[in-house]
Amino acid sequence: MDDRTAYVFLALALVLGAARLGAALARRLGQPAVVGEIAAGVLLGSTLLSHTWGWRDAVPYDQVQPSLGALADVGLALFMFVIGYETDSASLRGSGRTVLYVAAGSVMLPLAGGGLAALPYAADHAPSGRPGFVLFIGVAMSVTAFPVLARILSDQRLNRTHVGRIAMAAAGVNDLVAWACLAVVAALFTTAETWRLAFVPLYLGLLLGVARPLAARFPRRGTGNAPDTGSTVLVIAVGLMASCAATEWLGIHFVLGAFLFGAVMPRNEDRVRVAVVDGLGISATRILLPVYFVVAGIRVDLTTFRTAHLGALAVMLAVAVATKMAGARLGAALAGLPRREARTLSVLMNTRGLTEVVILTVGLQLGFIDEAFYSILVVMAVLTTVMTGPLLLVARAEPEPGEPGRGTGTAGGATTRNGSGRNGTEGDSVPPGRGTSRASVREANPRQAVRTPRRKHRP
């Protein structure tokens, strides 16, 4: 009897348990759950599954890794679909210029800075040669972790704010550019079949011209007036897997296929929306997605770190943070955003996490980097994600020039512990109350004056 099936279930139990413990510890420390899940994988990769300690021969992980990887990819696809489905393009109308400025700044500066910083390390860590290594590091530095950013915005209650929507849209554009750049680098320095990219317009046409109209008609075919949500979710899942397969075949990764399929789905039935989010999102975020983070972290073996690796980690971390935050803040300033919103965007765009790990894994598989530099960059991705929470609190707490400082509360309004105001906004302005005129709030922050609903005050 083949024991591989038993090993798969045993490994899945181990990975889910480690992810749960890591996520709980991360939340207790005020960090996103994804940080704990990746850290759990890193600890497994550096202890129980480490080649250095010799335990890997006794643990049949290599036999079950393909099965765990497949489950992890499905969870990632479901999560990215839900993120795309919940993205409201109507809320971004009038912010296109701002999104493009922020995205351009957060891509161009890290791309150039990362490439320059990679030059001294190309001789020791570039299996496929210096040019591919340098260009790949530049692409990896320019990434913003779109799904991790979505979770951070949700935890901080910024997902429905003006800054949160701009950050999500800019991160989406950022990742699209990053994947396009990675496709170009792979085409130049590998033997990938680049002719498949010519079918990208056809894929987009089928997505908008066929998939979207069919999805809009399908909920009406239920019994009575209620839509058949069960069949709808099943058909959407079939279309989602087909979209992921198409983008993977095209060479632009299934993550973008999942997000684009969710983004084009119609939102004409509230019951279908709830069924999709509950049926697909919960299974992805609570069961399958943590598997992806842990599996990615297992590839990192900290026991192979040397002093030189620590120096490279310090350099890459400093360049990644400085170029990303400076580029995003410059783009926000050019778009005319207030300083506090620009600071908040620069911190949010510095989040890397999942997307960075995915791109690093692709680079490792294509031979652009070796395992040692892969470990360095994964640790860098985790650290930049860890610092997002504390930096976000600092960025949102600093007052604008001429404004009174804000702590946990101010006169004329209240701010919650996570920095959000009473009415769920990002806390950048205090809601007008007694003794605070709406005109003064409009002067301090015009956007908040527009977004803040008029509220009745009890005597």
Overall mean confidence score, pLDDT: 75
Total strand segments = 2
- Total of helices: 19
Across the major sheet, the strand order is 1-2
Amino-to-carboxy terminus distance: 77 Å
Helix content: 55-70%
Main sheet? 2 strands, antiparallel
Along the chain, the helix and strand elements come as: HHHHHHHHHHHHHHHHHEEHH
Q: Helix- and strand-based class? A: mainly alpha
Name the shape in a single word: globular
Protein traits:
globular; two-stranded antiparallel sheet; disordered C terminus
Describe this structure in words.
Helices cover 68% and strands 1% of the residues. The chain is mainly alpha-helical and 459 residues long. It is globular. Mean pLDDT is 75; it is low at 405-459.
SSE blueprint:
Blueprint: H1 4-28, H2 33-46, H3 61-85, H4 96-118, H5 122-125, H6 130-141, H7 146-155, H8 162-189, H9 200-217, H10 229-250, H11 254-264, H12 270-298, H13 307-334, H14 339-349, H15 353-366, H16 371-386, H17 388-397, E1 409-410, E2 413-414, H18 438-444, H19 446-451
Antiparallel strand pairs: 1-2
Short overview:
With 459 residues, this protein is an all-alpha fold.
